[in-house]
Amino acid sequence: MTIITQDHLIDSVCDALQYISYYHSPDFVQAMARAYEQEQSQAAKDAIGQILINSRLCAEGHRPICQDTGIVVVFVKIGMQVRWETDMSVEDMVNEGVRRAYTHPDNPLRASVVSDPAGLRINTKDNTPAVIHMEMAPGDKVEVTVAAKGGGSENKSTFTILNPSDDIVQWVVDTLPGMGAGWCPPGILGIGIGGTAEKAMLLAKQALMAPIDIQALIQRGAQTTLEKLRLEIYEKVNALGIGAQGLGGLTTVLDVKILDYPTHAVSKPVALIPNCAATRHIHFSLDGSGPARLPLPNLDDWPVISQQSSRPGSQQARKVDLNQINRDDISQWQPGDTLLLSGKILTGRDAAHKRLLELMTQGQPLPEGVDFTNRFIYYVGPVDAVRDEAVGPAGPTTATRMDKFTEAMLARTGLIGMIGKAERGPEAIAAIKKHKAVYLIATGGAAYLVSKAIKAAKVLAFEDMGMEAIYEFDVTDMPVTVAVDVNGNSIHQSGPALWKAKIAGIPVVTE
Fold first, then answer.
1. Reduced to 3 states, what is the DSSP secondary structure of residue 459?
2. Which of 86, 248, 353, 392 has the fewest CB atoms in 10 Å of its CB?
3. Residues 6 or more apart from 199 whose CB is under 8 A from it?
4. H-helix or E-strand containing 230?
5. For the chain, how many structural domains are there in total?
6. Dihedrals φ, ψ of 504, to 5°?
7. Which of 176, 205, 373, 367 has its CA nearest to residue 275?
8. Could you tell me the residue range of the domain that residue 215 belongs to?
9. What angle do CA 431, 436, 437 make, to 5 degrees?
10. What is the pTM of this model?
């Protein structure tokens, strides 16, 4: 009989979460490197290049790949011959590991979990509790898979129950464009088929834990129904031309993973969950000999890409002095233009926008020092700084969550531009066009690389909200792309349409 102590599991969960916060798995790095080499869309290639450089920097510096260090999901398979030496439950041991990982002094991870989700939404401060799935199985070991799931990709999860005669592939192809770019493609699609509603969703999440192997499958050919589905969905989704960050390009998904389960004769439950460009998961076993030993990656597995060549547009990037910017300047920018921003920007996410709108509605002044006149706001919730950092990893959050605040911010504050990730919805684009503002995007999944451009940071307001506070950043050559211009033209509409046509071999008419 195997005896496993509580420290074996606690230490292993802690180590695994720290590990996946800064190490991409080799299969992911190889798949991204392949996508980088094959990409023909310059905007998408630049984005993939930044993600790969960020990945290597994180592996070297042991800092988070993405500022959204995720909600923890843990799958635990307990051998029936295992005996625990502990006074804690398995859930408590896992959560203690999460707590230690997210409050680690050398590499603190952003706590994003809130309690009372339908009410006060109070941050638990240590990212607990995890979402834990347990099962008992024959054997004398404990098998554990630990994942950190980012909110941007998790929010794009979707589910349907098709009729038995309906086409799963067509449903996926019809669904993907509506998911937008908030899940930070290129990534992996997890699909669960069958069972019941909750079983299909669980299968989709479990499917994401498997290694990327689509190229090997393409070479040997499909042999099962699910393998045929994987290949067909992979081909047809990439033919949509959505591309990296939704900018338009050849690679939207790196792999498609599918698990199924028997279901009712009149049902075809299908769940779809994407993993983003900060894919983070690892498996380990406990056999009673101590905490898990995680493999040390070889940095030679990462491609060598220069930071200069990875910057959007490289030599064509326009340098912008944010301290001198005005509306005449931004009126010259076009979707797809690449900029290097220097100067001061303010930050703010959902909670800050809500509090600002409440102040404006009540006729109260904005907090002292918060002046948006001719300024840009960056949608970001950074990781805490360590050592000599001005700020921790600080990549963009999904901008669509701020769409409902955009009209008020542009109309009442003098704000002229926003920086985030993914597309803007019709409401926000209408407000941008009306007020002759602009929307820029930074690369999601390159948070540590972006933070290198931030030379100073200070909290201006709402310090009680932690990472949701309003900061002032002083940046130097922060790389961004114009996504929506003053006329409301969006690259997230034009880019995928252009590359979908190119992929299909249809002649493209350009003005």
1. strand
2. 86
3. 192, 261, 269
4. helix 225-238
5. 3
6. -75, -10
7. 205
8. 150-287
9. 75
10. 0.93
